[in-house]
From TrEMBL, chain A:
<keyword id="KW-0813">Transport</keyword>
<feature type="domain" description="AP complex mu/sigma subunit">
    <location>
        <begin position="3"/>
        <end position="142"/>
    </location>
</feature>
<comment type="similarity">
    <text>Belongs to the adaptor complexes small subunit family.</text>
</comment>
<dbReference type="GO" id="GO:0006886">
    <property type="term" value="P:intracellular protein transport"/>
</dbReference>
<protein>
    <recommendedName>
        <fullName>AP complex subunit sigma</fullName>
    </recommendedName>
</protein>
<dbReference type="Pfam" id="PF01217">
    <property type="entry name" value="Clat_adaptor_s"/>
</dbReference>
<dbReference type="InterPro" id="IPR022775">
    <property type="entry name" value="AP_mu_sigma_su"/>
</dbReference>
<dbReference type="InterPro" id="IPR016635">
    <property type="entry name" value="AP_complex_ssu"/>
</dbReference>
<dbReference type="GO" id="GO:0005737">
    <property type="term" value="C:cytoplasm"/>
</dbReference>
Automatic annotation (TrEMBL), chain B:
<feature type="domain" description="Clathrin/coatomer adaptor adaptin-like N-terminal">
    <location>
        <begin position="124"/>
        <end position="667"/>
    </location>
</feature>
<keyword id="KW-0653">Protein transport</keyword>
<dbReference type="GO" id="GO:0016192">
    <property type="term" value="P:vesicle-mediated transport"/>
</dbReference>
<feature type="region of interest" description="Disordered">
    <location>
        <begin position="818"/>
        <end position="916"/>
    </location>
</feature>
<protein>
    <recommendedName>
        <fullName>AP-4 complex subunit epsilon</fullName>
    </recommendedName>
</protein>
<feature type="compositionally biased region" description="Basic and acidic residues">
    <location>
        <begin position="826"/>
        <end position="843"/>
    </location>
</feature>
<dbReference type="GO" id="GO:0030124">
    <property type="term" value="C:AP-4 adaptor complex"/>
</dbReference>
<dbReference type="InterPro" id="IPR017109">
    <property type="entry name" value="AP4_complex_esu"/>
</dbReference>
<keyword id="KW-0333">Golgi apparatus</keyword>
Length: 143, 1013
């Protein structure tokens, strides 16, 4: 299955975007996010960007105030996921221009659309920025 | 209008002024997690025709604060300009209300504040969303607000229906927002899904390919097994859609159907093969995911694709794909990685397929860019592939080199990958671990928990009898240090597993188990406790009685030391009680009253734990019986007496019964006691006469007296059942008195410990001192009667109490001496040999890798033994599968009733039988080992020199674990200094947004900081 969730959480542990590729109840999501964020935020920058949590392996990366956390299963290549995060940020940066936390908050649905283009069924299906952004730009034009 | 534009102009000018001041700020540097190579940046973002386009010329370089452009601050100008521009049309195209909400959420300083905001928002939305005639744009905003509510952990189900409605909208943006919200809110089995299936069907037929894409996205998340047939036909047709984006999503939709219900798409699997040769690399890449799943299930049907996969991988690696798929100059890395994963499945254990892959894997490894994360990701995947397919010596060598580079790296991420890769490769070539011993130990001692845990995983894989003590000790220390129960359990069971497999001595085993139990007793499998008791009881079995008793004595001694400690886990207390009862007085070292005092203390201190109390009281009974059987006078301690009184009135019928049985035993004479409780007989068999033939006489007599024959439960008619229930009720009233007359009707007494079970022992023993059998007859008419009392009080079957399960169980014991000698002497010698900084590590390395480290060290631990042990670890996997070679000859079928099981299910038995006997495998090695140990002492100088040479080669690595971290990447350090909120920008933005009426109180300036900056 690969990716099981993508989370964006800021330094204060507030969720900014959450996408799950398997169903969890609201309560489960809340506890999971709390536990993971506590674990990841406590780590320093020398430590590795991977954390094991229950059956998940979490690959995370920090950009300014925002943490990108990706939960994967055991077979996933952690380094590749780390670069997937970077690709996501680059893509958002290309769209928003100097993307910041507020951009994601104000355009939550767009951030989701980009993620939808990149990941389906927990698999990274698109890595070309042009292909990811094309439908979103078209949509912007028509609406 | 004029005033407004003037204002804006002014502001823009102002921000330019700011920008010049910003240029004097220290240059911002990359976020520390980025590798140095990641400096390649995307093209400048498109400007969307907003008014700040005139700053284009600055942007080319300047918008990247990291680039030495004219002014690092200019980039923010653009953002601000954009916000300003949007603000003039009502702010981001969204209402002020929405902006306020987002801002207040963004500025919330605590979870409770955030919760308050969200709860208020829920109230507002509940009111508003049901108003009539809401404009569509407004509704879209409401939906996004609902998404926020759910994202922040609150229930927004009141608005789900509106999200569903929005999927019907004609506008693409609204439709897609609707679909997005629905996929976020609902799972595939939600009731509302049925309302969406129709829309999806319609949208899949749309002329607008973006609508089709949106519907396919929704398919992946919302279509469940039952609704697959409604859309599958259309999805399959879309596989031939002219737009590649649609084809790709159709493939993924089919993939999700396959995940949900493989049978529903089985007839369509050929489509995946077809799409593998799609012109578009995106579609081809997507096809790899379903194919990977299919190959995982059934490798052999896809062997014909090996050539295709190899060919595709070759083309990708040779950069034949469009440039847009490059990621930081690496051609389509994600596709490469998936292909390598597929190849490793296909090549596993298949020489012919593997040989086709060697060239391309070798090429990729040679080409890969080891300075970037993505290059290393591919390299790692290659190593995984190499360790999975049929080994090629050349590739193994390359893989070993790559691992060496990973481990040498300063990046913790790469070290982690290196350790993981090492764990994979040692399965094929166990020798490579030795080259990296110091790196491994560095990782083991690293404060980073993730790295540490990964390293323990590696150690677990490379454990053998020569290093088990060091590894298990380390693991236990680690286990004690962590709080996470999940990993505590995992580590504990690994410790137990390793200790059972490789234990060098009984004493060590007992000590190890004590530690594990003490710190994680309630987390380990109860089976482990039973195993431990059995091992203490069995010891070596036949060959060495004194060693057995020494083992028991050392167990008893260690338990007596521990038992008073507070907070011992229940499982451990059970073991302690059992061992003290069985062997506490065996050596005569401890008096019976001392032991029973301790046992009473245990029962008292853990009064809420019925199982422990049960163990304690039975242990007391044993101590008493053994004393009496030995002819010594034994009077019951007062606290024991009061314990019995208390338990006789216990709510737990099991405890009550044990107490009554004890009472009954007190009145028996020595002869009977010897029969009931023979000394140290826990390993002897209880023969069970399943047909209960010894009761034939009694049954015959009863028949003659007019009793009705027993009808098995399943043959009874309903009327009988009713009467038996009535009978049962009346029977319950008469607890504490034994009925001697025959039963009218057999009763379907449920085989649980009901009060009736207690009834027997009260009157039982006094009536029948030597002939205990008859008193049990009423109960034994029913085979379903709980067997516990029978074995415990020792009915006349010659059997004894507390039988351990022996069936299918083997011994796992090694000689008590050999290994402790060698692993202890080794560090000592290395201590003498040199006093370098890395000495500690050298020692650890020597003891961890002792079996393989260097020639002279191997002599120390036994040359031949070292070798054969290594080979044994590799065989170890298969060994487990094989049926046990040595089984205890006395094993019986069926298993004797197991008192130790008490509450636990009896299903454990089967799992006992599948472990191997490492002891048996060790037998051949033992003598050799001892000889070599003797020889080793004379070889000490040799050893020293080898350690020295070792230190020379690895010294540079091991000496400075900390400086290394410091010098990781100078930029990283500085980055952390200059990074963080750039207050200036934030203030700029803040001022502007305030103009727009958002009223930020600048509580959270981070909201504005560039993610990539």
């Amino acid at each position: 299955m690969g990716i099981r969730f993508v989370l964006m959480v800021n330094k204060q542990g507030q969720t900014r975007l959450a996408q799950y590729y398997e169903y969890l109840t609201l309560e489960e999501r809340r506890t999971l996010e709390g536990e993971i964020v506590r674990k990841c935020l406590a780590r320093n920058e020398q430590q590795c960007s991977f954390v094991e949590h229950r059956t998940y392996k979490i690959v995370y990366r920090r950009y300014a105030s925002l943490f990108f956390l990706v939960g994967v299963d055991n077979e996933e290549n952690e380094l590749a996921i780390l670069e997937f995060i970077h690709l996501l940020v680059e893509t958002m940066d290309r769209h928003f221009g100097n993307v910041c936390e507020l951009d994601i908050m104000f355009h939550l649905e767009k951030a989701h659309f980009m993620l939808e283009e990149m990941v389906m069924n927990g698999c990274v299906v698109e890595t070309s920025k042009a292909n990811i952004l094309a439908p979103i730009q078209l949509m912007d034009k028509t609406s | 209008m004029l005033r407004l534009s003037l204002l804006m102009l002014l502001l823009l000018l102002l921000s330019r002024v700011f920008s010049s001041t910003e240029s004097s700020r220290p240059q911002k540097i990359l976020p520390p997690t980025m590798p140095a190579k990641a400096l390649v940046y995307p093209n400048p973002p498109s400007t969307n025709g907003l008014m700040y386009a005139r700053y284009q010329k600055y942007k080319l370089h300047a918008y990247r604060p990291t680039c030495p452009g004219p002014s690092p601050g200019v980039g923010h100008l653009k953002t601000i300009g954009r916000e300003l521009a949007m603000g003039s049309q009502g702010g981001f195209g969204q209402s002020k209300e929405f902006l306020d909400l987002v801002k207040s959420i963004g500025e919330a300083r605590s979870k409770s504040e955030e919760d308050r905001i969200v709860l208020r928002e829920i109230e507002t939305l509940k009111r508003r969303i049901n108003e009539p005639d809401i404009p569509k744009r407004k509704m879209k905003e409401y939906i996004i607000r609902l998404v926020y509510i759910e994202m922040l952990g609150h229930d927004a189900s009141f608005g789900y229906i509106h999200a569903v409605k929005m999927t019907h909208d004609d506008s693409l943006l609204l439709k897609r927002t609707g679909y997005l919200a629905v996929t976020l809110f609902l799972n595939e089995d939600h009731d509302l899904i049925i309302l969406i299936v129709n829309t999806i069907q319609k949208d899949l037929k749309s002329d607008n390919y973006l609508v089709v894409s949106a519907a396919l996205n929704a398919c992946c998340k919302l279509i469940n097994e039952e609704t697959i047939p409604a859309v599958i036909q259309q999805v399959v047709e879309l596989l031939g859609h002219p737009k590649e984006g649609v084809r790709k999503k159709a493939v993924m939709a089919l993939h999700s159907f396959h995940q949900r219900s493989p049978s529903s798409v089985n007839h369509l699997i050929s489509n995946f093969r077809k799409r593998l040769s799609d012109n578009d690399p995106g579609v081809m890449g997507a096809t790899l995911f379903p194919l990977y799943d299919l190959i995982t299930i059934d490798v052999n049907s896809y062997k014909d694709l090996v050539a295709s996969f190899v060919n595709i991988l070759k083309q990708v690696a040779e950069r034949r794909l469009p440039k847009t798929y490059d990621y930081h100059q690496t051609p389509a890395p994600f596709i490469q990685i998936k292909l390598l994963k597929i190849l490793s499945l296909l090549g596993s254990g298949d020489k012919k397929s593997s040989e086709q892959m060697y060239t391309v894997i070798g090429d990729i490894m040679r080409k890969s860019d080891t300075s970037s994360n993505i290059g290393n990701a591919i390299l790692y995947e290659c190593i995984c592939c190499i360790s999975s397919i049929q080994p090629s010596p050349k590739l193994l060598e390359t893989a070993a080199d790559a691992i060496a580079n990973f481990l040498k790296s300063d990046s913790h991420n790469l070290k982690y990958m290196g350790i993981d890769a090492l764990g994979r490769l040692i399965r094929i070539s166990p020798d490579i671990a030795e080259q990296h011993q110091l790196a491994v130990i560095d990782c083991l001692e690293d404060p980073d928990d993730t790295l540490k845990r990964k390293t323990f995983e590696l150690l677990y894989k490379m454990t053998k009898s020569s290093n088990v003590e060091v590894i298990v000790d380390r693991m236990i220390d680690y286990m004690i240090s962590i709080n996470d129960n999940h990993y505590k359990t995992e580590t504990a069971s690994r410790c137990v597993e390793l200790a059972e497999q490789f234990a060098p001595s009984n004493h060590w085993f007992i000590q190890t188990m004590n530690k594990v139990f003490q710190h994680a007793g309630d987390l380990v499998n109860p089976k482990v406790a039973h195993n431990l008791m059995r091992l203490i009881a069995e010891g070596f079995g036949e060959d060495d009685d004194t060693a057995d008793s020494q083992l028991r004595l050392s167990a008893v001694e260690s338990y007596l030391k521990i038992v008073d400690e507070p907070k011992l886990p229940s499982a451990f207390l059970q073991v302690i009680c059992w061992v003290l009862g069985e062997y506490g007085t065996a050596d005569g070292k401890y008096s019976a009253s001392y032991i029973s005092g301790k046992l009473c203390d245990v029962a008292e201190a853990h009064s809420s734990d019925d199982i422990v109390k049960g163990y304690a009281v039975t242990a007391l009974m044993k101590v008493y019986c053994f004393e009496k059987a030995a002819g010594r006078k034994m009077s019951l301690l007062p606290e024991c007496q009061s314990l019995l009184d208390e338990l006789s009135a216990s709510h737990s019928s099991d405890l009550q019964q044990r107490a009554y049985e004890f009472r009954a035993v007190l009145d028996l004479d020595v002869n009977a006691i010897e029969n009931i409780m023979p000394l140290d007989a826990s390993c002897e068999d209880i023969e069970i006469d399943k047909s209960l033939s010894f009761l034939n006489d009694y049954v015959q007599k009863s028949f003659e007296q007019g009793a009705e024959p027993y009808i098995p439960e399943n043959e009874r008619s309903g009327t009988l059942n009713i009467s038996s229930i009535r009978n049962h009720n009346s029977y319950e009233h008469s607890t504490h008195s034994l009925r001697f007359e025959a039963y009218d009707v057999p009763k379907p007494v449920v085989p649980t410990k009901l009060p009736p079970a207690v009834a027997y022992p009260t009157d039982l023993v006094p009536v029948t001192v030597n002939v205990t059998e008859p008193s049990y007859q009423p109960s034994s008419v029913q085979p379903t009667w709980p067997l516990v009392p029978v074995s415990d009080a020792g009915s006349g079957s010659g059997s004894t109490e507390l039988k351990l399960r022996l069936d299918g169980v083997q011994k796992k014991w090694g000689k008590p001496t050999y290994s402790s000698v060698m692993s202890k002497s080794l560090p000592r010698e290395s201590r003498q040999s040199h006093v370098e900084v890395s000495e500690e590590k050298q020692k650890l390395a020597a003891s961890l890798f002792g079996g393989t480290t260097s020639r002279s060290e191997r002599k120390q631990s036994g040359g031949a033994a070292g070798h054969s042990k290594v080979s044994r670890t590799t065989n170890h996997g298969e060994d487990k599968v094989r049926p046990a070679t040595v089984t205890v000859p006395t094993a019986v079928q069926p298993p004797p009733p197991d008192l130790l099981d008490l509450g636990e299910s009896a299903g454990d038995t089967s799992s006992y039988s599948s472990t191997v006997d490492p002891f048996h495998q060790l037998e051949g090695l033992l003598d050799l080992n001892q000889d070599v140990n003797a020889a080793a002492t004379s070889n000490a100088p040799d050893l020293m020199s080898s350690l020295y040479s070792d230190a020379d080669t690895n010294g540079s690595l091991s000496q400075n674990p900390n400086p290394m971290n410091g010098s990781v990447n100078p930029s990283k350090k500085t980055a952390s200094l200059t990074k963080g909120p750039s207050l200036k920008d934030a203030l700029d933005k803040d001022a502007l947004v305030r103009q727009m009426g958002v009223n930020p109180t600048s509580q959270n300036p981070n909201l504005f900081s560039d993610l990539l900056g």
